[in-house]
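Student: Hello, beginner here. Can you help me understand the protein record under this note? Any guidance would be welcome.
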Amino acid sequence: MIEFFQDSGVWLVTGSLLLVGLVGCVVPALPGHLFILLAAIGYRLMVGTSAGIAWWGFGILVLLMAISQIFEIVSGSLGSQWFGGTKWGALGALVGGLVGLFFLPFGLLLGPLIGAFGFESLFAKKEVRESAVSGVGSMVGTLVGIVVKVMVGVVMIVWFFLDIWVIK
């Protein structure tokens, strides 16, 4: 009977961290991928070596987390360039995205847009229409970055369960 409550407690903590991690992949203020990694580490610490998680399994989770974070940072810049923006627009989207983090949740989308628009207008000497297109591109890139972030979070959770139950 005690073992049942121990197992239930382990899964309650692990499941809660995984759920918060998945929500954090959408909500910008929560480090979602970090919570998913912490769920795996916590599970291993609570269950021990019989947890089924290998050291390289943690390495894959860390690699996925790093890839997602890098893509999230540069997605606005990539979107700006994809829509025909200059290097100035890409830099503005990056700066605007970083500044926008201080003005959540609206700064997440408006920061890259304003940054790309401003840098295109001020430094690249582009017309208003071209600057606006670059700004919209940065916002589209940021949205794609959020979608990729959620997808990577789901892959991390799937990997966690595969590593526990299938791969061993």
Summary: Residues 2-167 form one domain. The helical segments are 2-24, 32-47, 55-82, 87-100, 106-122, 128-167.
